[in-house]
Structure formats: structure tokens, C-alpha cells
Design a protein that fits this description.
Length: about 260
């Protein structure tokens, strides 16, 4: 898998991201992708070869391995990293769509025509919703993969000894031994911790975006109310001036 290409694509998201998203991207590539490529792949590289069972029954070792490892940790993490980074591409695609609309607008109406967007990368309107939706997708994917990891291997634990029973073609209960379980357990906890940090950062960013949107809406509402109040005061003053002018004219006529 070419992680450099994925990193190059996601680096463009930094231009349209908040500080939380930049930290999230750093955690993903430093503490997850880098650890995955440098160390985790080597730790799990020999898992099936060194999965040893105390039986010579043909096919029993392979069946027991498939029973306890329906999907390898390393492949599950690879899928998780791919799925969790894909929602960020929605933001890039939306910005590219805006830039294409802006370009077509200039070609049609000339270079001096009014711009459709003050800033194509600014999170307003539809882009804000796209960005928020991508964060929810990230959050759901992270939680689903953590649940799968916990469901398949209870409490993310890898015991030294597993017992394979009532699985054909194994004749009876078979003891199987996982290769380097302590080392694999350490990497599992590390990857789960990094994923938990990413979940916390994503939740913080969601609350930050919503809070910022609410504050901006309240400020606009206050400005609109101030304008309406000032307009009503100005209209009231003009009405008083007109009535005073009419009273003065009527008084001069009576004196005359």
C-alpha cells in the first residue's frame, strides 16, 4: 500500500482544516501509519506460520487459526486507516467543485464579474455541512472498528494459550499457542490508544464547529436587532420633527 500517496492527498485538507483536524492528521500519520509501516507489519508478519497447535491432524491448525483470527489485526488496521481518512477527501472534492464553478463563472461572464464565493475554501454554507458530515463519518468509522476489534478479541487481549474445541477436522480440544503474544498485545493497546485520541480530537472539533456556528449566528442576530432598533428610532424622530413643524405652522397662522 502506498501511504505516501494517501498522505499527499490528505495534506491538502490542512488548508481547509481547523487546529483540531491538523493535530488529528499528525496523530494518524505519526502514531498510526508510521508505527503500522515500521513495526506492526513485522510483528504480525509470521502470525499464521508460528501459530502452533499440539496436534498433527491435517487442516486442524489452519482451521483453529481461522477460528481465533477471522481477520488479522494488521489487515483490520489497514482497512480502518483507509476508511477513516477517506471522509477528508469529501472536503477536497467540495472545494474543487466550488473552484470549478468559479472558473466557469469567470469564463462565461468575464474576469471582472462578481465572484460566486469570497473564498472557495472558507467553511460557509454547504462546505460547512460537508466538513461536519466528514467528521461524523470519521467518528462512526473509528467507533465501529474499535467495537469489531473488541468483539473479535475480548478486551483487546491476546492470550498465550487458546483452546480450539468442537471445530472440524480437529478430533477433540486442541491447545494452540500464539506467537509473541506480549509484543502483539502491546502494539494492540498502542493502536487502540491512538484511535481513542483521534476519537477525542474528532469530538472536540465537532463541538468547536457547532459552537463557532452558534456564536456567529448570535452575533448576526444581535447586529440585525441593533439595526432595526436604530432604524425605528430614526423614523420616530422624523415623525416628531414633522409634527412639530405642523404645530409651528398652525400657530403662526392663528397669530396672523
Amino acid at each position: 500500500m502506498d501511504w505516501k500517496t494517501l498522505q499527499a492527498l490528505l495534506s491538502g485538507v490542512n488548508k481547509y482544516s481547523t487546529a483540531f483536524s491538523r493535530i488529528w492528521l499528525s496523530v494518524v500519520f505519526v502514531f498510526r501509519v508510521l508505527v503500522y509501516v515500521v513495526a506492526a507489519e513485522r510483528v504480525w508478519g509470521d502470525e499464521q506460520k508460528d501459530f502452533d497447535c499440539n496436534t498433527r491432524q491435517p487442516g486442524c491448525t489452519n482451521v483453529c487459526y481461522d477460528h481465533f483470527f477471522p481477520i488479522s489485526h494488521i489487515r483490520l488496521w489497514a482497512l480502518q486507516l483507509i476508511f477513516v481518512t477517506c471522509p477528508s477527501l469529501l472536503v477536497i472534492m467540495h472545494v474543487a467543485y466550488r473552484e470549478d464553478r468559479e472558473k466557469k463563472n469567470r469564463e462565461k461572464n468575464g474576469e471582472n464579474c462578481p465572484r460566486l464565493y469570497s473564498n472557495t475554501g472558507k467553511k460557509h454554507g454547504g462546505l460547512w455541512w460537508t466538513y461536519l458530515l466528514s467528521l461524523f463519518f470519521k467518528l462512526i468509522i473509528e467507533i465501529v472498528f474499535l467495537y469489531l476489534l473488541h468483539k473479535m478479541w475480548d478486551s483487546f487481549d491476546l492470550p498465550r494459550l487458546v483452546k480450539c474445541s468442537k471445530v472440524d477436522p480437529c478430533p477433540n480440544t486442541v491447545d494452540c499457542y500464539i506467537a509473541r503474544p506480549t509484543e502483539k498485545r502491546v502494539f494492540t493497546y498502542f493502536m487502540v490508544g491512538a484511535s481513542s485520541i483521534c476519537i477525542v480530537l474528532t469530538v472536540c472539533e465537532i463541538f468547536y464547529l457547532i459552537f463557532k456556528r452558534v456564536v456567529r449566528s448570535v452575533q448576526k442576530w444581535k447586529k440585525s436587532t441593533k439595526r432595526s432598533v436604530s432604524y425605528s428610532k430614526a423614523s420616530t424622530c422624523q415623525c416628531h420633527l414633522k409634527t412639530e413643524e405642523k404645530d409651528n405652522k398652525s400657530q403662526t397662522r392663528c397669530v396672523a
